[in-house]
Design a protein that fits this description.
Layout lengths: L1 H11 L5 E3 L4 H7 L8 E3 L5 E3 L7 E7 L8 H12 L4 E7 L11 H12 L19 H10 L1 E3 L5 E4 L5 E5 L8 H12 L1
Parallel strand pairs: 4-5
Antiparallel strand pairs: 1-6, 2-3, 4-7, 7-8
């Protein structure tokens, strides 16, 4: 029943799946000479992870939630990761409880859910705040500043190039097997 309600709520909020980031001169200055791979974040176990470990790869950064109507996108994200991983591609998930409280679990619960429900092998980071304001993740501050877009719901996707610079933002409704997304990934891998 909760999943049905979540799916209905997601459908009703579809127009808000992408939100414009308020890009201030302060944020432009802060992030002008930085890319995603210049940051350090915490992984799902709480250990620091230098995103420079992804330098030279194309990444798809996704804000995820375990109780969302779009949670089944984990399956497609895992398929992309498996298919393209050998070509220098990785999905990187950032669980987020910002939208509808749909990621209420602890890090251990999130990790168990991802592994047991969707056999996720791509990196999952610690839970973050995606929404702009005090407490926003540095990763999402940078991504929003560079693209002008922030997720307005769960499963927003940023394609990040081999140099750590964001290439494009794809909203919630863009499925992992979407032709435009796949074309952008293939083009980024070819560079």
């Amino acid at each position: 029943m909760l999943r049905l309600f979540s799916a209905l709520a997601a459908f009703l909020f579809l127009p808000a799946c992408t939100k414009s980031a308020a890009v201030t001169p302060e944020l432009e200055t802060r992030w002008s000479n930085k890319g995603l791979y210049d940051l350090t974040v915490n992984d799902i176990s709480g250990a620091p992870l230098e995103l420079s470990s992804f330098k030279g790869q194309v990444t798809l950064v996704v804000n995820t939630a375990s109780e969302c109507g779009y949670t089944s996108q984990y399956e497609g994200l895992q398929a992309l990761h498996q298919e393209l991983g050998g070509r220098g591609f990785s999905v990187v998930a950032f669980p987020c409880n910002d939208f509808g409280g749909q990621e209420p679990g602890s890090s251990a619960e999130i990790a168990t859910f991802c592994t047991n429900t969707y056999a996720v092998t791509f990196p999952v980071m610690g839970k973050v705040q995606v929404k702009q304001g005090e407490g926003q993740s540095e990763a999402y501050s940078l991504l929003g500043t560079h693209t002008g877009d922030l997720p307005g719901w769960n499963f927003g996707k940023y394609l990040v190039g081999k140099d750590g610079q964001p290439i494009a933002f794809f909203g919630t409704r863009t499925a992992p097997d979407d032709g435009d997304l796949r074309g952008a990934i293939d083009a980024a891998l070819a560079q």
